[in-house]
């Protein structure tokens, strides 16, 4: 990893030229009063006059526009530096209210007064994040389904209608277009080092944001509209994210030493790492993660390009090609269909697993926190960003610092402050992969079904007094069929978990499901057929859970009505049929959950068989899904069709018994 010392920039020559030199070529001194009115409002016409367009099609000439706007940006930067914080607040604070992040923009003003490149870069990342979110709110004044990508948002007709096309073109010179400075992407993907982002571009974006606020105020007054801010995303169930122990000052101090010695860190990026750890110590958790995520990406990009022998991809891509981002670095194959060597070169399976599982859990999986997406698109409140989440990102980063430290750093790696992190990394399992979420669903459903015996019911002697109540024989037949299916499944379950006296209550238990769900299942590079099956299994589990919830709610209501004698004769009979159905409905739901957990073990082998076997397998699962969907309908408060539920279950069990006897579901499970 000696390459980490030799890299002097991650910007390709054209991108480096555009960002670091192009806007400095014109040496003119620009008078700030040309673009600023007496009451400190932005004169947009004067700003847009600096835009240049191609003669061929009148599209933006980004090169000439950057060159032309360079002196304007410098003038704005010097102007802001001449203001005190109080003057800036008085003149501009109100123009940032439309962003719903006024304090962030006031902080950016403070950044302009310092000379540290890390602070300018951090300020720009926060500014672009909040600006994108605010522009999305404006978009929703005129359209639905706000674009996910900033470039699509800035190019939208909706924003052009509010602010004017010429104004949007100015913004696209700085952010959102791969042909312009593209400051947002260059920073968030970890390509720019601290000294490579001119402060004057940060000042200009601050200035333009205030100007947008002025234009928006006029638009809202003219149209009598009100800007509504979308609520922030909040993290729930933070305990699910708890992978690494709480980081104390000793661990963080050790990390600061590792940063200086680890081959995972590009030396030109070292200030970002130090700033990230400092921010965490100062309880600035959003700042810490914003600084650290791009550095994790660039560190992995260094590994990726080295191991796959494509060093040119360490640099920013041009507008005609794509960046090398997390998605590609974590893929099984490269775009030329060769095997990605990154997981292989990590040597230890645990490191490859945490690389894929942890990063996908925290960044990509749809049901995970998707931290980078939500931070970079402004979906999370920066002020209330939780320590628990930052703790996991920093902990993960430290494990990679250790993994790529020299052998003479063994004493640091084995230090009591670091070793617990490495131990946690070695046993990390995905929490938000669809398979992991399915396991969670199954166990939650089982907990719900286990509440049934605690439901209040009518005493048996009262049931006997009701004439015309039938179905006991049918229920017993269904229970017997369930016992037979359990016997067929016995070879595929842990030993000694079945009692011949009571196969249902000895096998269909929460303990067994927990044991089966605890089995480690590889989620790395799950093929599409596996994910298709998991989607169906999750739908089945969700339907089972809904049935259980409906039964619990319905039984409680009917019992209270029974006690208060408010049930009519037909309702009493129907309630007792419900109670009678418990004899088979609870076992059948538990049986389905058992089948789901057994499927998780066998799904890879079945999906790798020939297409006919797979399609037959999927067809069967969809028939089980149809059964559970019908159960939801029949057991709903509106229907209460308990006799029909019995008939439906009988047909489903016959099919399940037939399939399990063929062992189609459980191919190669043993």
TrEMBL record:
Residues 131-211 form the DUF4209 domain. It holds the Pfam family DUF4209. It comes from the Eukaryota. InterPro entries: DUF4209, ERMARD. This is EMARD protein.
